[in-house]
Amino acid sequence: MASRDTVEGIFFLSQTVLGMLGNSALLCCFIIADFSGIRVKPTDLIVKQLVWANFIVLCRGIPQTIAAFDQTYHLDYVSCKLALYLHRVARGVSLSSTSLLSFFQAITISPSNSRWAQFKPRAPRIIGPFLGLCWALALLLYIYIFVYTTDIRGGRNVTGIQDFGICTVINSEKLISILIVILIATNDVIFLGLMMLSSGYMVFILLKHKQRVQHIHRSLSPRSSPETRATQSILTLVCCFVIFYATSVVFTSYMSVSDGSRWLFNTDAAMAACFPALCPFLLIRHYASFFRLCCTSSYQTTHCACVFREL
Question: Of the candidates 210, 230, 224, which has an alpha carbon nearest to the alpha carbon of residue 286?
């Protein structure tokens, strides 16, 4: 086994395990909150969908890890199509869900005298349809994968294919490839732009609020203000989001219009899974400032409570 394959296998295994643990912790956070009777926020539905989409994206690392350690491993005809299709759909849903989360959070914290304040009462009712639209858009956008993807055995009798180890992709006509790249890149850029605009708006609102209450913070504590900590969390989340997904868009677009290699395919898969693996840790800090069980003991009983702090 080549040393590079070993490194790839270790990387995919570590990324998958770390991401699964982080998303599981975030999901447990919501399960405990539901059983504890804590009031559900409208944006909780978006985060829950984001967690499940992240799980599907990270599942792509399982066959990649096996293929890295076992060079003879490959998916069959049906599994290959489903694995790539579900991975791309979940990636699209993860991207759009993160953007929608930032958008609805921006509406939530907008001041009452702003033009966005009128959308606050409607936000809980339109979140569900927006999430359904995200799934429908992703399911339709990546339907081409069923046409241009096949297994290793099926690709042996086809000319103009790209062998990516676990699957093969049939090269389409140049014009079709360009149209696919334009559609996917446009979709991703729209959601990236939405994330950047809404996050910038939230930072602007928080900084203005910090200026108004600056004298209170000075008299209370030398620690950084809640607005500063929230701003840092937002900037960290949006920077990771933009960097990882922008890089993934570049790799995906390049692979669609050129003769890719197995290394490029693996790099694209790794970059696509970076944010789903990292974002639960950022969200646990940003969405619920701390998550812990506070246990107080008496003579015969122990009482445990889960403490959350809203944004």
Answer: 230
Q: Is 240 within 8 Å of 278 (Cβ atoms)?
A: yes
Structural domain includes residue 300 = no
Q: How far, rounded to the nearest angstrom, does the alpha carbon of residue 254 sit from its chain's CA centroid?
A: 21
Structural domain of 23: 3-291
Residues 6+ apart with CB under 8 A from 240: 275, 278, 279, 282
Closest CA to 61 of 26, 90, 28: 90
Within-domain flag for 296: no
Contacts of residue 26, defined as CB under 8 A and 6 or more positions apart, other chains included, come to: 47, 51, 280, 283, 284
Count structural domains, the chain.
1
* pTM for this entry: 0.79
The number of residues in the chain equals 311
**pLDDT tens, residue by residue, 225-261:** 555 666 667 777 788 888 888 887 787 777 766 666 6
| Long-range contact set of residues 109-114: C-beta below 8 Å, sequence gap at least 24 | 109/202, 109/205, 109/206, 109/311, 110/201, 110/205, 111/205
Q: What is the CATH number of the domain that holds 90?
A: 1.20.1070.10
At 176-223, the pLDDT tens digits run 878 888 888 888 889 988 888 888 888 888 777 667 766 555 555 545
Residue 168 is assigned to a structural domain of this protein? yes
Instruction: Decide if 143 is inside a domain.
Output: yes
CA distance 285 to 123: 24
